[in-house]
Design goal:
Strand content: 5-15%
Number of helices: 11
Structural class: alpha/beta
CATH superfamily of the largest domain: HAD superfamily/HAD-like
CATH class of the largest domain: Alpha Beta
Shape: globular
């Protein structure tokens, strides 16, 4: 294995649930639905603006627009690195792996996440809002492979949605489903798989 590809939301970055109210969690419950709601997918695709999504969410959640604006801003500002994944990224980089980002992410979110030092460890990225395509559409995986000359058989993709892993597998990319509710356990599994000399 030569190339390790990371999803961002729920894998490398997340909100600390202990810092969020139950009302806040409930407001964003749609994020975990399968499939993702079309309006949020279009936001990630770069088709809808933050202002347009705010209006849609106000209707969907029967919530005042000002409250929606507050929660959307908080959902960005509260993003922080998932500590076990952040350390895994650093260790993989030190071990000589090539690291890439493949993520469904809106403009506001990706601009915020790129400020974190760990983001600078990646050798390349394909982000949905800049491509006009989203996972699990095959085209976004093809762009990653083609842009960076990656061999699918030498590439491992880490994501927290089964549909995204399946789409990668259809193109010959190996996958590892990430359990966002137990990040340390998934990172330990990946260490045993990719860094056996360190684990041993």
């Amino acid at each position: 294995m030569e190339n390790i590809v990371f999803d961002l939301g729920g894998v490398l970055f997340a909100r600390d649930r202990s810092k969020c109210t139950q009302e806040f969690h409930d407001f964003f419950s749609f994020i975990r639905s399968e499939p993702m709601p079309a309006f949020w997918e279009d936001y990630d695709r770069g088709v809808l603006t933050l202002d347009e999504v705010t209006g849609i969410l106000s209707g969907v959640n029967a919530c005042p627009r000002a409250k929606c604006e507050e929660y959307l801003r908080l959902s960005i500002d509260m993003q922080e690195p998932v500590k076990p994944t952040e350390q895994l990224v650093r260790d993989l980089k030190a071990a000589g792996y090539k690291l890439y980002v493949l993520s469904n992410m809106s403009r506001e979110f990706i601009d915020f996440l790129r400020r974190f030092p760990v983001y600078g460890l990646f050798d390349g990225e394909v982000v949905s809002c800049e491509e006009g395509v989203v996972k699990p559409e095959p085209e976004i995986y093809r762009r990653l492979l083609g842009r960076y000359g990656l061999d699918p058989a030498q590439t491992l993709f880490i994501d927290d949605r089964p549909a995204n892993i399946a789409a990668a597998a259809a193109l010959g990319i190996r996958g590892q489903l990430f359990d966002h509710s137990a990040p340390a356990a998934t990172c330990d599994l990946l260490r045993r798989r990719l860094l056996p000399e360190i684990v041993g």
